[in-house]
Structures are given as structure tokens and as C-alpha cells.
Amino acid sequence: MIKTFTQNDVIRYVYEETLPEENLLIENALMSEPDLMTFFLEALEMRALMNKIERQPRSNTVQHILNYSKHHPANPPARLRHS
User: Fold this and answer.
1) Residue 28, domain member (yes or no)
2) What domain of life (predicted)?
């Protein structure tokens, strides 16, 4: 029986979530199915681009968190901690 591989299988392969036995079968499928190979190359490119994304919170978000922490009941002012 010939296994038909889907785009989901290719994504699992790109993210190294497949078994060694599956890898060989998927690699053979990629060589014989141009559409699957095209999807594989696009998925590799997308993964590389996503790995370059750097996310940072807005400065006012950080300030809100710091203010909340500063005024939280579990964090009394310094003058009360040393009494």
C-alpha cells in the first residue's frame, strides 16, 4: 500500500516531529510529488521567517505591570517592610 502524505505531514517533518521511518517515506514523496515539494519549500521559508520575529511589549504595558506590582498588597512600601 502506498501512503499518501498531506501538508500536515510535511509540516510535522519541517518541525522534526516525525519518526525516522516516516522521514524516509516523506522524503521519497517530496521527490516524486512536485506540489508537495513546493509546499515543503514554502514551509521551510515560513519557518525561517517566523524564527526572525522579535516581539516586545509596548512600554506603557510594562509600566502598567510595574505600577500594579509596586502597589500590590503583597508588596508593601519599603517603610512598612522594615518596621
Assistant:
1) yes
2) Bacteria
CB 15 within 8 A of CB 47: yes
On whether the CB atoms of residues 5 and 36 are closer than 8 A, the answer is yes
Counting the structural domains of the chain, the total is 1
Q: What share of the chain is helix, strand, coil (3-state, %, to 5)?
A: 65, 0, 35
Taking the chain (83 residues) in runs of 10, the rounded mean pLDDT of each run is 86 97 96 96 96 90 90 71 56
Query: Rounded to whole angstroms, what are the CA distances from 50 to 17, 22, 68?
Result: 18, 25, 32
Q: Is residue 60 part of a domain?
A: yes
